[in-house]
Amino acid sequence: MDILLPRTLDEALGMKSDHPEAVPIAGGTDLMVEMNLGHRRPPIALDVHRLPELRQWRCTDGTLFLGAGMTYVRIIRELPGFTALAQASRSVGSPQIRNRGTIGGNLGTASPAGDALPVMAACDAEVVLAASGGRTRALPWHQFLVGPKKTAIEPDELILGARWRVTRGPGSFSKVGRRNAMVIAIASLCLVLDEDRRAVRVALGSVGPTVLRVPQAEAFAAGALAEAGVWDDPAALLPPEVIEAFGERVAASARPIDDVRGTAAYRRHACGVLARRALRWAIEDRQAGPAGHGRPAGSWGARC
Amino acid sequence: MSISTLTKTRGGVGESVRRVDGVPKVKGEFQFGSDLWAEGMLWGHTLRSPHPHALIHSINVAGALALPGVHAVLLAGDVPGKKCFGLEFADQPVLAGDRVRYAGEPVAILAAVDPETARRAAAQIVVDYEVLPPVTDMEAALLPDAPRLHEYGNVLRHVRIVHGDPDAAAEVWVEGYYETAMQDQAFLGPESGMAIPSSDGGVDLYVATQWLHVDREQVAPCLNLPAEKVRVHLSGVGGAFGAREDVSMHVHACMLALRTGKPVKMVYGREESFFGHVHRHPSRIWMRHGATREGRLVSVRARLLLDGGAYSSSGSAVIGNASTFAAGPYEVPNALIEGTRVFTNNPPCGAMRGFGAVQVCFAYEAQMDKLAKALGMDPVALRLRNALKTGSALPTGQIIQGSAPVREVIERCAAIPMPAAIPMPDAVSMPKEEGGRRDRLSYPGGAGNVSRGEALRRGVGFAVGYKNIAYSDGFDDSSEARVKLFAGSSGPIAEVHSAAAEVGQGVHTVLAQIARTELGVEHVVLHPSDTLVGSAGSTSASRQTMMSGGAVQLACQAIREELFDRVRLRAGMGDAPLVPDGALTLEGGMVLAGGVPVGPIEAYLDEPIERTRVYHHRPTRAMDAMGQGDPHVSFAFAAQRAVVEVDEELGLVRVVQIATAQDVGRAINPQAVYGQIEGGTAMGLGFALMEEVQVREGRILNASYTDYLIPTILDMPPVEAVLVEEPEPGAPYGVKGVGEPPTVVSTAAIVAALRDATGRALNRVPVRPDDLIGLTQPAASAGPPPAPDVPGPKAVPHYWGLTHGQGTLMEPE
Amino acid sequence: MLIRLKVNGEWHTADAEPQASLLYVLREHLGLLGTKNGCEQGECGACSVWLDGEMVCSCLVLAAQAHEREVRTVEALAGPEGLHPVQEAFLEAGAVQCGFCTPGLVVAAADLLARNPSPDEATVREALSGNLCRCTGYVKILDAVRLASERLRGRTA
Lengths: 304, 813, 157
Ligand SMILES: Cc1cc2nc3c(=O)[nH]c(=O)nc-3n(C[C@H](O)[C@H](O)[C@H](O)COP(=O)(O)OP(=O)(O)OC[C@H]3O[C@@H](n4cnc5c(N)ncnc54)[C@H](O)[C@@H]3O)c2cc1C
Ligand code: FES
Ligand code: FES
Fold this sequence. Notes:
The structure holds 3 protein chains of 3 kinds.
Chain A: E1 2-4, H1 9-18, E2 23-25, H2 31-36, E3 44-47, E4 57-60, E5 63-67, H3 72-78, H4 83-91, H5 95-100, H6 103-109, H7 116-122, E6 126-131, E7 135-140, H8 141-144, E8 145-147, E9 150-151, E10 158-165, E11 171-176, E12 187-194, E13 199-205, E14 212-213, H9 215-227, H10 240-253, H11 264-288
Parallel strand pairs in A: 1-3, 2-3
Antiparallel strand pairs in A: 4-5, 5-10, 6-7, 6-10, 8-9, 11-12, 12-13, 13-14
Helix pairs in contact in A: 3-4, 9-10, 10-11
Chain B: H1 22-27, E1 42-48, E2 54-60, H2 62-66, E3 70-74, E4 84-85, E5 92-93, E6 99-100, E7 106-112, H3 115-123, E8 126-131, E9 155-163, E10 172-180, E11 192-197, E12 203-207, H4 212-223, E13 230-234, H5 250-260, E14 264-267, H6 270-276, E15 279-280, E16 283-291, E17 297-307, H7 315-324, E18 334-342, E19 349-350, H8 357-375, H9 379-386, H10 406-414, E20 456-469, E21 478-488, E22 491-498, H11 507-519, E23 524-526, H12 544-570, E24 584-587, E25 590-593, E26 596-600, E27 609-616, E28 634-647, E29 652-663, H13 670-689, E30 695-696, E31 699-700, E32 719-724, H14 741-758, E33 764-765, H15 769-772, H16 796-799
Parallel strand pairs in B: 1-14, 10-33, 12-13, 15-19, 17-18, 22-23, 29-32
Antiparallel strand pairs in B: 1-7, 2-6, 2-8, 3-7, 4-5, 9-18, 10-16, 11-12, 11-14, 16-17, 20-28, 21-22, 21-27, 24-25, 25-26, 28-29, 30-31
Helix pairs in contact in B: 4-5, 7-8, 8-14, 11-12, 13-14
Chain C: E1 2-7, E2 10-15, H1 22-29, E3 48-51, E4 54-57, E5 70-72, H2 85-93, H3 102-115, H4 121-127, H5 139-156
Parallel strand pairs in C: 1-5
Antiparallel strand pairs in C: 1-2, 3-4, 3-5
Helix pairs in contact in C: 2-5
Bound molecules: flavin-adenine dinucleotide and FE2/S2 (inorganic) cluster (2 copies).
């Protein structure tokens, strides 16, 4: 095995095009586990963890760009206003893992249980890829994540980061595990409200071959919120049976399997529960208002 | 020399003293087995069978041997002596010969210059297996047409205990079926050790273990060496919990060292560790309890089945224990208890903290709750009404002679204040950082952020349990200690030499405390534990404080006699002071007579005094064919109350508080006793909620810390513990062991609380989220299997002539 | 391959296999055995060290990634004037049993208290949630962190 230690993104992209078989390593929190267990021995490892170009985020023109090298701990510290993203980051592994693991690695591994992925899916994120010679392209998340642990990245490409249009509105991320910390999701869910488009977007993790969106349930919820007049009047209430029906729709859209961590039946059930809670929380948070209840302004719907 | 001031000896019995090995441990300087290093050492590696049941036709090692850096590759044929080892029966092959009986069984071993080369070499070994259908279900193993895993069949031992009239009539009956899964000890420091060949043709083995001498008893015959040529030394142990009672890498490392002439180190990784040691026996339990309307137990019927996996390990003792404790810490006039320990092609099971008592406590305490409900009685009151006491008869006919403060532990546990009521969520509730009242981490689901307090139900559960201390069933359990008292440059020093394995529980600290109290000397040093002193017996069965503590006490008393003789002899001679009247004692480095100082201890130590003594506990008597006897020495009892919070929609749990009272006899080091209670409780909590070695078709599906979950700091509640100190007559200082009772009761208490919160039956542990929300039905059974046809009450291999490590299992033709 | 790294203030060079983890290089090449291997999966935290000031699992760092970087291990905590207050508190509170988890926990607790000298209980629990201990049930570990926090505050006050 050889190791390449580029200092700049350009250098890294050059190396990647010369050695398409090189496997990028960022925080190593996925890759090293496989290497330590002897499950994987890449011929060449390309260290991308220290590339300054990947270790940044920008919020400009209403778009958030999150560099692939952003670690979870930095997201928690620097982007607390992006509630769902920060919550997902805080639920990852342990402090040690959050200090080291990156968004780029979560995308690169493309596990259906990757906790940043439902957030990106719910935000309609694009994954930005780069190759040497200044070539870049952006793929919508669902074109990038093509299967369990499968992505559409080309051998000469690196993940630069992900970007999405920042929306106004509350959102949350929750994940179910059998222990109260350090678990791989049995099921996870991200829900965001888009106040401007009057849309509800929901993504599920760990209950299908990749992260799933649930368009029918989303449309149902947006319609129900409109019907109840919630969009215009935060104090308006959504009837409990509507919230119930929303949960059922989300659960019905899951495509779970049985594995060592949980059963398909439980996963489907959990999706319904998480969906109902997330919708209720979103409505509660709207009622409280962006700066209500002593919360920092912008704790939902960070602005750029 | 000034002899005027008298200070009390510090750091003695009854004080919460710091650990003797604490400083190196916090600095990272303590040497664990995995930290051993020697010039020119090689790394050993084990190739294991991927199949649970197969014949081996051939093994080709040429590819591995051809790799540069590989020094030896050894197979079953290379085992120099006895081919098998085992704690009770030598039925487990050092290396599989022509047949493997579990997935993970060692097939070949090799030594190479580094771990990476060793791993690569192992991948070059080609084994030709003929896969056989595995027996993976414990009831299927009992069927007449099941493949026989051992020549004598699939039953290791069947215990039958008949007490009173099992058909006695009762007014109220409750019935239940229970299952417990396979639990792993999951100690933090995996199996490790190093073998160093010596010039006399023997070997020095440094190993993280629980019982040095029984290791040697098993290792030496396999190496075809006399015992004295196999010197076993204790290296730092990263937790044990029963998993280090059996031999793991011991023989392998020695074989490789003797073959290559170099030191060989073997360290298992986390995954291999799941294959490298025995687990807690999974169980199926059928119980029927009969009582009077007033809540007096009349009869208990219990049928127990333990899946022992492929080999014997300590299984016959485990089923003995499970059977003798199946009726719980209650007076039961009539009982019929039958327990069977079977063989399957599952991973081998043996000792784990609680040793058979955990499984039955889960069942009998569920039964007691059922009974309380059927009687309309308070569950605590029902337990009090039936509580054992000194003088009570057990189902084995054994009369409890020692202390049995069962009533006290129940009452004192129940009296511990309940935790504050949980604030109920507001209509608009929010995480604490957003203005709500509770930190979101404190809800069931913790870091997953799944709750703002929805669908929370609180439940309270109570359990009482008990466990024997030290070895049972007629075994002449003993421990030897050697103590030397000598004059150091700044005062007298006592050196304690004991083979008692310090595994983290703090026995070495306790031995030092005892020496301080007995000799009145503060400076105590521990000689490294090895086989150069006699056996201390196993660090298991919660026995070391009593047994090795007793041995150190005896040795110290013998030293004192000699010292006092010297004092008396010297008195009146030359310029030595006259001994005043009154008994001689030692305190604060001084010899006292009638409480008055006569001189510093070291004044009498021109010659060091060394004494070696062996402590035996009172003899026990094995059970006869009807399960009658006097099998156990002493008992320790514990009561626990668990308060849990369940998210009723997601089936997630947070344990809010554990309250417990435990019968400890006498706490030598109270802080360490609390530590044992907390740690033992955590292990029971894990078993209640998350810990299961998942085995499908004989293969472990979750051999990692990623998928075998043990509790984190966010899963453990505060533990309010009360020590009930009622000295055990005949035991040194009145001590009882403390390590196991918390593990025995906590699983039962937590599941009782979950039942209280959810109203569901929950008859299997660990409890899954699915069980808590009713997605799954309670574990069901068509009824207990018939008793197997076996020769008698002892373990079956006994009747085949395979007794204590003497026999070697014959491979079928 | 040759890896140069600064460990506990001193530069070292190790000729390590390219796939080696930082944990392996610390233990097997540099003889710094205080950092423990309990899983090599990032789950147990026994291998916790600081890499450029950030606490990480050394089993998950490719040694080459630590090339020209600064590593601090448990061995650096105790100074000439004695144990680190966290180490002292672990001894006093009885937070050590087998001790295999201890180096990692001491590192994690010191890391927390360096950033937040008076954490509340939930913060302590979250900060230590990546360190498994099989012996203690964590109760005395929480006591120890509380004690160390009081001492550290007392010292600066
Ligand atoms: C104990 C533990 C707990 C964990 N808990 C969680 C959890 O709760 N939730 C969760 O989602 N994950 C969890 N993980 C998994 C892991 O931490 C995350 O997936 C993390 O985001 C991976 O990031 P990394 O930088 O460490 O990835 P690496 O291991 O460095 O890389 C992962 C993959 O991504 C590729 N890659 C990385 N960067 C790039 C790039 N710039 N361009 C192209 N390819 C790239 C790599 O080649 C590799 O295939 C856990 C891991 C451990 C060990
Ligand atoms: S060894 Fe690194 S986390 Fe366990
Ligand atoms: S003290 Fe043994 S694992 Fe923590």
